[in-house]
Structure formats: C-alpha cells, structure tokens
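Q: A reviewer asked whether we had any structural model of the full assembly, not just the individual parts. We don't, so I'm hoping you can provide one. Inputs are below.
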Amino acid sequence: MKLLVCVKQTPDSTVRVKVAGDGRSIDASQITWAISPYDEYAVELALERKDADPSTTVAVVTVGPTRSRDALRQALAMGCDEAILVTGAAAESLDGLAVARALAKVVEEAKPALVLCGRQASDDDQGLVGQALAETLGWPHVSTITKFRPADAGPAGSVDGIDVWREVEGGHEVWRTSGPVVLTVQKSEKEPRYPSLPGIMKAKKKEIPEKDASSLGVDAGGAKLEIVKMEPPPARGGGKIVKDGDMKQTAAELVRLLREEAKIL
Amino acid sequence: MIAPTTGNALLIGALIVVWAVGWGLFVRRAWQLYRWLRLGRDEDRTEHPARRLRDELVIYLGQRKLFKRPYLVRGIAHALIFWGFLIITVGTVDLFVSGVFGYRLPGTGTAPFVWTVDLFALAVVASIALAFVRRIFLPPPRMHVALDGYLILAGIAFLMITLLVFETAGLVAGVAAEGSADPPLGRAILGLWPSPFPGESAAAVYGAAWWAHLVGVAAFAAYLPQSKHLHIFTTLPNVFFRSQRPRGALDLIDGIEERETFGAGSVRDLSWKQLLDGYTCTECGRCSDQCPALATGKPLDPQKIVLDVRDQLLREGARLVRDGSDRGTPPARWKPTKTEELWACTTCAACVEACPVTIEHLDKIVDMRRWLAMNEGDVPPEAQRSLTNIERAGNPWGQPPDTRADWAKDPAVPTFAEQPGAEWLYFVGCAASFDRRNQKVARATVEVLRAAGVSFAILGVEETCNGDPARRIGNEYLWQTQARQNIETFGRYGIKKVIASCPHCFNTIANEYPQLGGSYEVVHATQLVQRLVQDGRLALRDGAARDAVAYHDPCYLGRHNRVYDEPRDVLDAIPGVERVEIEPYHRERGFCCGAGGGRMWMEEKVGQRVNHRRMDQILAVDAKTPVTKVASGCPFCLIMLDEAVGARDVQDRIKPIDVLELVATHIRPPGAQTEARSDEVEHLGRASG
Amino acid sequence: MKVWSIVERGTAPAAKGGGDADRREERAQRRVSLEIAAKAKELGESKALEVTGLERYSALPVVGAIAAKAKAESPDLILVAATPTGRDLAARLAARLGWAYASEASGIAIEGGAATITRTMYAGKVRAAVRASLPAVVSVRPGAFTLPSGAAEPAVESIPADAGAEKLAFQRFEPTAAASGRIPLAEARVVVSGGRGLRGPENWKMVEELADLLGAALGASRAVTDAGWRPNEEQVGQTGRTVTPDLYIALGISGAIQHLAGMTSSKVIVAVNKDPEADIFKVADYGVVGDLFEFLPAFTEEVKKAKASA
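A: Here is a predicted structure for the entire assembly that you could use as a starting point for your response.
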C-alpha cells in the first residue's frame, strides 16, 4: 500500500512568535521551523503502518517556500521513503483551497491508496486543506482520526477496505472505506518518533524532486482570505490576582471575569 | 625442607606433568579469553603511564579501594588474603623449583621469609573462616553467593592447610634443609600438640601434604580462569588500563557524521577494556550496594550490567571469533528488561566510585544508550521530547529561546555582546535561565560576583544548552551539535574563563568540551566563592537567623569532579551557619537526587522516587541534629529536593537552597569591604584540556 | 445580507449512552446553536438549518444537503459552530462551494461586501483580523458571543441529509476505556488540575465535582501522580501530557517548571494557591491567593449558579 502524507512547515511550538513591523505578518527572522505538530502525528501514523506492514511505502509532500525542504528531510529521517516539494513564487502565498488543488495534482500523479494530513496547521490554525483536498479529488474524508488499518481480511483473504478510528467525545467511531480516502490526523498512538542518526544521514543525501506550483496550474490569484491585522495576545501573567478575603465573593468575582472578560464559561 | 621428589626422576616427571597440565589448561583458557577480548573495539589506554603505575601500586598492590567504609573489615580480610597469596606464591614456586631441580630460590630459607609465609597463611585461614561465616550466616544482600565462591574459598583453605600440615610434618620428620629456618607455625603447633602424627607416619604425611599442596596449586590454576576469581589475574591489567579521562567525561565518538552505527550495537562495539571489566568483576556487589536506582526498586543493578556483558561475551565469543561478519545480539537487547535497566541509570557514578577493581560501569550503560538513541531511535518518549526541545529550542523544557535572558533584565546583567571585554563568562545554564526557582540562584550568583567585583558577563540569548542531558541520554550527535555551537560562541568573544552555577554545565564544559577543542578554565560558582572569601574579597556578615544547613553533594560536583571541600568551606565561612553532614551518605558516598543522566526528563514510575529516599536520609540526620536548610550546588538537585520536602511535608521547616543563595543573603553591605580586583583571582579555576 | 446558521443538534456523535456526557454535550450544542443563530440574526436576514435523517454525523451527506440548498438560495454567509464536527463540515462545505473559509472566529463584522473576522493564529500566540470575501463559511468559537438574555429559540428549518452521497460505512462506536464519561486530557477544552495543595486523594471529590460541572478533563501535577493519589495518565507536564485547553484551572499547584512546560499554552489559566509567591501565578491570567478548601466549594457553587442561568 502506498501512503501519501501532506505536511506543512510551521514555526516550532517552542518559538515565541512575534508580529512583524507591518502589523499583518510575523517576524520570520528568529524562527526555528519544524513540521507542524498534527502533520508530524500524520507522518508517525503512516510510519506505524509501515512498521506493521513493511511492504507499505510512505511518500511525503509539502507546498511552500524552499525552506520547507527541511521539513521533508525531517520526515525522510523519520523513515518516509520519498519526498516531493511543491514550491516556487506562487507556492508562498496560496490559500487553503489553492494548496488543496496543488496537492490534488500530486495525488493524481502519485496514486496513493490514501492520503494523511494533520487536522490543522499550527500557523493559520484553519483546518481546511484536508477536507478541501478530498473535495478536489472527489474522495471521502474522515477527520480527527487516531488510528487506521486495513479492514479485517475478507473470505478470500483479501483486504476489504480500510478501517479508520475517528476521535469523538467519549470514544471513537470506526468508519470503513472501500476506496481511496483523505484522513486528517488528531494524534498518533505513539509520540512521533525521534529520527535515528543513520536515518538523518540518509535523509541528508536523498534527492528531493521539486515541482513548481505554477506548473501544476495553481496560482495565488483570487485569494478569498486576507490578513488585515495581527497583534500579540495580551501578556500572560499580568493576570488579575485576587488576594485572600471573603472566598465567596472571590469565587463570584472569578466566575464573572471568566464569563464576561475571558468569555470562557 | 627437602622435597619428597629429591633424587627420584619418576616423581620429578610426575610433578612436571601435573603442573604442565594444570598450567596448560590455564593458558588455553587465558588465550581463549584473550581472543574474545580482542573482539572489542580498539581503544588506546596507554597515555599517562606514570599515573598508571602509581594506580597499580596503590589500587592493586595497596588494595586502597577495598578499605572504604562500610567495607573496612571485609577489605582488610581481602587484603590479607591477597598479600598472603602473593607471598605464598613465591613459596609455592620455591616448592616447585626445589621439587624439580632440588634447588631453593634465594632467600626462601631465611627466617623473615618463613615467618612472613606462616603469618600470612594464618591470616588467610582466619580470613577465609570469616568469609565462610559471612557467606553462610550473614550473606550480604547484593552479593551473588554461589558455589563458585565456596569452591574458591575451599581451594585456598586446602592449600593453606596442606601447607601447615607439611610444614609441621616436615619438622617432625626432620627433613629440614641445611641452614633453613624453622617454620614458626609448625613449631607452634608442635608446642601445643607435641606428637600429632602416630608412630613413624610423619614422613609419609609430609610427602602426602606436599604433593596435595602442589597438585592443588595445579588444579587451582586450571580452575581459576573458569571462575569469577579470574579477577586475581585480570585486576592487574584492569587497574593499569583504567580510564585516565576525567571521571565526568564520557568518551567522544569521533567522526560521527561518517559512521554507520553508533554506540554499542554488538559486543564488538564495546571497547576491549569494557570487555576486560567483565572478566574482572568478582561479583562483590559493592556497586549494587551504592546504586540509588537499585536502592529504590528500579530494575537497574550495575553489577548485572557488567556481568551481562561478560556472560554475553562468554556465550557469543567463540561464534564471533569464527565469523567476522557476525555481530551477535545487541547488548541492549540481551534480555527483555535490559532497556529499562539502562534508562534507570542516573549516571551518579556511585558504582564506579565503589568498585575495588576500577570497573567502568557508566561507559557501558552510555554506549548501550547511544545505540538505542542514535541507531534505533528508541528513547523513552518523554526524554525524546526533551531532546527535541534541545534541538529546536536549545533547552530541554522547550521554553522560547529568546526568553533565555529575561531573568537578567532585572539585575541588568551585561552580555558579552554588550561588554566584550569581560574577564569571566557566567554560563547560566537552562535551569537557572528558565526555571523560576533557579532564576533566584542566577540572581544570587550575580549579586555575589558583583559584590566581589568580579568582571563577568553572560551570553544572553546566544547561550544554548551545554548538551549534557543529550550526551547522557545517548544522543552524542546532539551533544556535539550543542557543544560546537557554544564553543563557536565562546571563541567569537575570546572567552577563556567560565563560571558555572550548574555542575552539569561545569562538568561538560570543563571535562568534555576539550574533546572538541574547547579548552577553558572552568570553575563552579562555589569554588570561585570559596577563593573569594579566602582571599578576603568577599566579606560575609551574620544573618538574622541561625541555620543548620545540611550539605547535599551533587554527583557531578562531588564524585565526578571531586569538588567536596569548597562548598563546605563556603558554608563554614558564613557566620550563623552550622554545617551538618548527611552521614553516612555524603562526599564519596553522597546519594543522588535522582535527576542526573537525563532522568530529570524521564518518568519515574517504578519503586520509590530517588529524591524521596534522599529526603529520608536527610530526615534521619534531622532527627538527631535538627536541620533548617538543605543546601546544594545544583539546579536539578534543588528541583528534586524542593519536590521531596513537599512530598515529606517538611517544606515549612526544611528549605532546599543553593549555596550561592545562602551566600548572597550574607553579603556585607558595600563599603564594608575592599574593592576586589578580578585579576587577582586569575589563578582560580579548573584547567581543562 | 442572508446569513445562515447550522444547528448541529441531532447529528452529534455523542456517546449515545444517555449518560452525563451525552446530556452535557446536548446542553452545549443547544447553547452554541442559540449563540450562532442569535449572531446570524444580528448580522442580517437569518435562517437556522438542521440536517436530519442521520443516525450520526458524516460529512458527505450533511455537506451535500447544505450545499445543494446554498447553491439554490445563495446565502452570503454560513455560520457553523466550531465544534469538532462543525469544523469538519464547515471546511468541506467551503471547499464544495468554493467560498472563503475562516475557522474558530471569535468576532465577525460585515463591511463593504466582506466579513472581517477576528481569530487566533499560531496556536493562540497571535490575534488576527482577517477579511473574507463573501460569500463565506465561518466556524465560530463556542462561547465567543454572549447570548442576549431571553434569546428565543430560533425556528429551525429541517433539510434531509443527502444519504446517496455517503461513501463511508459506519462500523461501531468504541467508548473510551475510562467509562467515567469524563473527557480524556488530550481532547479537553477545559482542564481542572490538582496538585499537592489538595493534601490527599480523598479531596479529589471536590475537584471531580467541578470538572463534571465544566465538562472538564482531570489533570494532576507530577507530585500527585508520583504519590499515587491520581493515575499516571492524568499527569500534565514535561514528563506527562502537554495540554492546550481553552481554560486550565490549577488547584494547589505551585508551578514547577516540569508542570509549566505542559500547560502554559492554555488559552486562559486560573490558579489557586495559598502561597502568593507560587510560580504558577506568573503564568496565570487569573489568580486566587487563599485557602483552597474554602475557595473550591464556593467556586463550584458559583459555577453551578452560572450554568443554571445560562
């Protein structure tokens, strides 16, 4: 079985993101980039399948600027077999629907049995590309999955589709698909693996073919979403401290703040 | 005495054959063991020959490491057996030579020699009796009491008894050679029991005992290399070839980018010295006695680490010698529980300190961890998270790297970028940079350095994790990446002198960075303060409160670097502070807090928590001498002790604190001291390299 | 300006055991449906839609039904609650229609033929305003809009699911092993965590009561799981789980770095501790310095009152 994992390179979760001078983008100068966490789970999940069935091959693809190559190397080091980079000037500013169209071209060429994506990227936090890719391909999708495996062997011993575990409140729904499917990943069973050193060395030497986004017929024109303004959230820890006094009043005040100010209750 | 074989060619021939067979079997086994030993990777262990000779004299001949508490009595008994063995060996060779050639070795007939042999023979018999009694009635909990041990003891006893018997019978039979002294023991026995042998049997008894003794020696020689008592021979080279690296330094993997396998994936990947350690272990269990992991119910037993390597070599050796491409079982997979054992180690080096025959337990554990971490990517997930954090954020907690110097805004500590000429680098470390509790230690350190007028700066956001957790977890590659980055930064600012308030930073920079070409003068903050106080550059005043301060030795300051006295001197210099020792678990026997070796970032689910055990030891002292503070010089110890006082619900009366914090609260106000000149403290520091 | 809101009731993937979790989810869905319906009304000519005829939610039949209607009636904006199912359907719906899409909106304003949407990006590290051309699909953060008091139950138009569009086959539901009905830590939007300040496992009854009330997962500090007061799975921190809920309530936790490493990315942090110097206050948005055993029952009582009035 051939699996294709779509990943995005985003600022590492340890990075403190700063808004750039223009007030509508982030300052990219001090950023450590990494595979977006949910995408990393998707890679891990695909590799877990490969562990269970060594005949599985895992390809990984990304759409983005050339620095995204590092994310692909990381995925290769973890154990993916091949990587495809879709880049070029157009790839830098595509919106979710356009990224999905570019990915759909790659899928049509690579012909995987299924496609895995993270449930959302940790930069725009949109959670659109997986569903949009499935829509573009005309495939079904299952979102927020934590596990998948070939369905129980049929009478002739053949594999009859794929079972997918979708995480919902209180448990998992198991869905079966008989054709190709896009899965968006919530979490892998294990933490994403740390690449072995031989894996890292091998990945360093691996050829990563590059496709130009515009050659896939995708351009950045007609974006439907535009960032108008960005600002840091209010500083942490300047929090309101209620000193001891009457605990009944304190409790009532806290509930009020949580409802009206934090809008969380 | 005149040998029973004298003049009888047949008997002489028989004696030669018996010895040839015994020693032939010995040599055959020794050769086999040597060939298996050569399976190990090459490692040069010949540097510092003078130090090696000294070690040989002190540790091997002098038996120094055997006399440690709490093993003093046993140690003396062992030393007596050992020295007796050496002396009596000369006597035995003399017997053989005189039996074959009828010729005595020079000096063996003199009274001093005869007396020495007899006294040691007596001491050996007594020691063996003691050993028997201990094994039967009071077996030490960690000791591996097995038939092998009894056989050896019985064998030695047999040799001693036959010696005494033929000496006594020889006296009665009058076979003494011209001019040789009477053996005193034989004489003494005859004094107590004038006619032990009926009728004319003395000569026959003499002959029989003499033969029994020499045949016994040959049998002993044949048996020895099959048993754990091989250490009688292997200790000699094992001590000679012991590591002369600083104890805190792990071995460098050279040319890591060009390698295909990393760490010990096969016994072939362990060095020949590590394999020799296996031959040398005598299963005394002292390492196990001292292991904090074993003491708190973890699966690790340092003795087993060594013995497993030996067992694997004995099992696989012949096969691997035959087939050069066969790599055998990876040592880390030797048994199903092996990885858990390996990850339980805090690298506190209590085992290394305890071992009387200089076995290097840690190198094996780390080499196996290296294979797991780098070759297999098989690291406990939570530890892996810390590694990823170090890789991406430069600190194991994954805190934003650009907040590293946020703590330093308040006391406005200059960075090298701002003050490139500073004399000392204060390498803050991740814990004191990011952990709020330990930020107080960083601030205290700054306050103390300023009060003493030391010229220093920090690296600010240019500092990155020194790499210690990565190296100890087994990710040598990440350690090298971190170390190179810091060395590059140090070089950019021309930094020559480094102060560290964290023993892990201290150890790695002082002892390990030289492996990558970064040699600096490195001091731990307590060392610097000790000298500043001694030189009168830092004046300390009496505080408001009396404090009884228990000092907890951090492993990477104490055992790994033997910095025991300086922090104690500093505490003693603070008026109003009364130092309390955590007897008997202090100095060389200091008990780990549980955080070393990357354990800080791993779950501790099995058994008791190491830091809780440590707290119980402190509380046992506290019950006799009330303790108000427990001081340490390590951020990880501090975190662990903080947790432990909470767990034991004594946080309101025993406060964990860093030595530097204590110093900072006792600084005499400005004006009350003379201006310190930092160039005067130039001679400080640990020369590395 | 035609604004639709999608009512999720009945298509929720609830445990269907009739237990607390189901009731809680039903309540939550009802509330959020009211919220977005009210918002739709505020923004323009509104309509509340509900897709019926499905045993449980599945994207293709639901999206098929809504898209067909949207193509026929051309609304300008479709609001969906940003619940897990809501976000799933909203994304696919936007792709089907080829419209603009923004997720997890916490504010919406219409101006000049476009919607300006307030939302967070970079896992909450940035607040952004984005302009979406209309027509658009927007998923809305539950609780983002205060419900006007006495808001009437909207009239809901039912449309049948497009059963023919289904390409997947539902097999079974596997409840989470912890049959307590409590949400696992990783999924929870609210986490109530206890530390050693609670003094003993017997006092967790109070924590559980609050957690149940909030539909929250239970967390614990390492000290607590190490002491065996709570199971290891509940550990939050460096060696436990990293959580990023909307609300994190730390009770009697001092805030050692191991713990902070696992929860500082939470959107809102509430800390209760008797020690005003406790490090947890340095990361808290709201802090209470005082006796936990006085505060907690009072707080639970107040939350109860607040929930009842909702």
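A: Points you may want to mention in the reply: The first strand of chain B starts at residue 424 and ends at 427. The radius of gyration of chain B is 30 Å.
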